[in-house]
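Listing S7. Sequence submitted for prediction.
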Amino acid sequence: MIKITFLGAGSTVFARNVLGDCMCTPALYDSEIALYDIDAKRLSDSEIILNAINKNVNSGKAIIKTYLGVENRKAALKNATFVVNAIQVGGYDPCTITDFEIPKKYGLKQTIADTLGIGGIMRALRTIPVMAEFAKDMEEVCPDTLFLNYTNPMAMLTGYMQRYTKIRTVGLCHSVQVCSGDLLKNLDMEDKLNGRTELIAGINHMAWLLKIKDKAGNDLYPEIKKRAAAKNAAGKHNDMVRYEYMNHLGYYCTESSEHNAEYNPLFIKSKYPEMIEKYNIPLDEYPKRCVKQIAEWDKEKEEILANGEITHERSKEYASYIMESVVTNVPYKIGGNVLNTGLIDNLPADACVELPCMVDGEGINPCHIGRLPVQLAAMNMTNINVQLLTIEAAVTKDMNYIYQAAMLDPHTAAELNIEDIKNMCDELIAAHGDYMSDYK
């Protein structure tokens, strides 16, 4: 029997999407699903909704079991065919709030703070030790599993697993699947959606739409750039940063403008505060989303408990398609995060890169890309520097690597001096308490 273990199953909305997808997939209908979390209430919430989906869309074929607490983790993982990771160490309160409020005292503004920047660094440092424990357990009880990591910071966590553990790991994001489609829709080019071809490669949240052609093979970029420049000139909208990327770097980027606004030193600047308004950059966006998601889930749970009616349609998330491809040996193409084993020639071998991968019964098979345009590789390197130093800090427990990661972060370094950077890091580590006990 196929066994799917979901780590961080208290991420109820995401667990519903991924595992609901599995229950909509014939090759996965009768899987054993192991839900693992350390939060009893949230685990119970997920069990309620997934049992309802199993009943309503899968005729109860899946076997759903719950596992609470570290002491039951090995049982949850034992003999797992696939492991999906969606944990958030420290949660919204206190850790996410801390990652925003302390930097704000130093004058450092953030939007999402889960992938890069000082917030991304801190999130990685408190998550990698937990990932190391996962890997130790998996190496013992399910050494041949395929580990599907959805947790951010994607490149840091996935890169750690690929370099320092024996577990087959691929990192998965939501942005690759929707990148070109959303771009065309937002520029009123829906007539070019069907039959289009594309090539996307780079790093997570900063992979590049290198090619986009219509079904006849015509390059769509000239018209895309023309319309994007006109839209930015016409007034505020929600994707101004990425359109500005296209204007100056020549290519569109996979992840949203609110994310990319804080991955470089160009948009959030104390010297030019008017740029926040000009480019419609939503500061402190992630905490706002967390509050909204918590409220929406509480309302949805009440409705489910009231009538038990919930259904599900298969989403665009890669997880179920990967599992289906591995089980059936029918090839499927994804955008995956893998170690750069000679795949992108002008990025380092230690980097975790995001690019096309073919999936089949043998697992994940990444494709060789060659060289990125030099300006795109340069932009990626400013982020890779931080990723590699943060992983080094997590592995060695050396505080100097934490300071260096923050000192080389593009946005942090543009705003703060070395003394403030070190003091901010010290204050964050102290505030995170037991989550950061290895780094004191």
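Caption to Listing S7: primary sequence and predicted structure tokens for the chain studied. The first helix runs from residue 12 to 23. The two ends are 45 Å apart (CA to CA).
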